[in-house]
Design brief:
The protein folds into three domains: 146 residues, no CATH class; 112 residues, no CATH class; 147 residues, no CATH class. Helix content is 60%, strand content 2%. Strand 1 and strand 2 form a beta hairpin.
Length: 467
């Protein structure tokens, strides 16, 4: 519950008559909450130092300090070693820098014993240990304080992934990323290139350097007309046609989707295959060897495997029929065939995937990028006299770019996917892999699988460019 005077969350075990052990824990937590981190003799207090060192707002820094208090409590009462989030760890680091107050006042008077900070030693075993300690810390947090905040206690793949890449640097304001363009990044980049080339063309036409002999006024009008046609087509389709085609007319309640359904909805068959491999690696049936890009059988199993995991294991046994234990990852990917027709029917029945006319238009949109480049070339090599095609083609391309949508999802499919992503902050690893892909493969065995997949993707990219 929340103390109205302090605003701090009290222990869920703080119930009269539960015995001396829990009462002692309650007293410990009250002492930790009552301890003042700010030294009144310092002009720049603890809170200001924390905000400046990390670029945090005052509210976020205050919340981080409260989470640090909870972590310290868990460090003393949990029956296992604890590991803080990176955000909580920053508060702990700053408190340790106040060495006299930390070691001579906080530890002996408030905690009753020293609380040491042990950095990681490195290596696979150490990494596995910290991953498991962090998961155990989250479980203990839930028992005492309820569900933790995702921004201060992120999932394990974020805690030991993105958060480990933070480093001290100059704090400055940065522009917000164009998140709205991410879903159409290829089409958006093409559009920006087109706009830049058109701007250069208009500048050359205005300066009289585009053609020989000097251009007539019709050249500049033609280029400007094409640009306006492209923008008009994009705007009209994005605001009016796109919702009509991609938003189902009747919507049901949020459907119950399993991990394979979510993986297919998020990124298609390739994500489902990644999920199957991760399931087998997590159970210890297969082991990923990133040095040779192979998968090694660790133990024979006769238990029933669900869906894609069963297909992957069957393919592995076929490839390893001659007694070998290591099979190339690329061979398993190539031979793993899975019938997704029932999955597509299920997702379409819930209006999550495009169907009918919208599906056909979405498939035709694959032609928009090469057509747009051809249109740019035609704009500079074409004749001086504008034709109706000069205005209709950019309008058509603008419509295609505005209607396109990633992974064949409807707008309702996007909403359902966002609902699951928001609700899966601390869910099981396989659910996070279904939603985030290899980036969520963390924790010992899964780390090796993520490295293997990255190696294979890098090899494919190098072969594509002829490196």
């Amino acid at each position: 519950m929340i103390d109205r005077l302090s605003g701090r969350q009290s222990l869920s075990v703080a119930t009269p008559g539960l015995g001396p052990v829990l009462e002692k824990q309650q007293q410990l937590y009250q002492r930790i909450c009552a301890y003042e981190l700010n030294d009144p003799s310092h002009e720049i207090g603890f809170l200001a130092h924390l905000m400046r060192a990390n670029g945090w707002s005052r509210l976020f820094a205050l919340r981080a300090i409260e989470e640090y208090r909870k972590f310290v409590f868990l460090a003393l009462v949990a029956d296992h070693p604890v590991t803080p989030s990176d955000q909580v760890d920053q508060v702990w680091h700053l408190h340790l820098l106040c060495s006299d107050a930390y070691w001579n006042d906080f530890c002996p008077r408030v905690l009753g014993r020293p609380l040491h900070h042990h950095p990681a030693k490195g290596g696979q075993a150490e990494r596995d240990r910290f991953h498991e300690q962090y998961r155990a810390t989250i479980r203990s947090y839930r028992q005492h304080f309820g569900e933790p905040s995702a921004d201060l206690w992120p999932p394990v793949d974020v805690r030991f992934g993105r958060d480990l890449q933070m480093q001290r640097g100059r704090i400055r304001r940065t522009l917000r990323s164009w998140r709205g363009w991410l879903a159409w990044r290829i089409q958006a980049s093409t559009l920006l290139v087109y706009l830049a080339l058109m701007a250069c063309g208009m500048a050359k036409a205005a300066a009289g350097a585009s053609y020989d002999p000097p251009p007539e006024s019709g050249d500049l009008i033609g280029l400007l007309g094409k640009l306006l046609s492209l923008i008009a087509g994009f705007t009209i389709s994005f605001r009016h046609l796109r919702p009509l085609l991609l938003q189902p007319s009747s919507l049901s309640s949020t459907p119950e989707l399993d991990n394979e359904d979510l993986a297919y909805l998020c990124h298609g068959p390739s994500r489902v295959l990644d999920l199957g491999l991760a399931s087998l690696v997590q159970q210890g049936v297969l082991r990923a060897d990133s040095s040779t890009n192979t998968l090694v059988l660790m133990e024979q199993t006769d238990q029933a495997m669900p869906g894609i995991a069963k297909v992957v294991l069957t393919v592995y046994r076929q490839l390893a029929s001659n007694g070998q234990t290591a099979v190339a990852y690329a061979d398993i990917v190539k031979l793993s065939r899975y019938d997704f027709s029932s999955q597509r029917v299920f997702l379409r029945s819930h209006k999550l995937l495009l169907n009918g006319l919208a599906d056909t238009i979405s498939k035709l949109n694959a032609l928009t990028t090469p057509l747009l480049y051809l249109f740019v070339i035609e704009s500079f090599l074409g004749t001086n006299v504008p034709s109706p095609l000069d205005f209709l083609l950019p309008y058509f391309l603008g419509n295609c770019i505005g209607i396109t949508h990633p992974n064949n999802r409807t707008l309702w499919g996007d909403s359902v996917l966002q609902h699951y992503q928001a609700a899966s902050t601390h869910s099981d690893p396989l659910l996070r892999i279904a939603l985030l892909g290899p980036a969520a493969m963390t924790g010992g065995r899964l780390d090796d699988l993520r490295s293997l997949i990255k190696n294979v993707e890098a090899d494919i990219a190098a072969a594509a460019c002829g490196c």
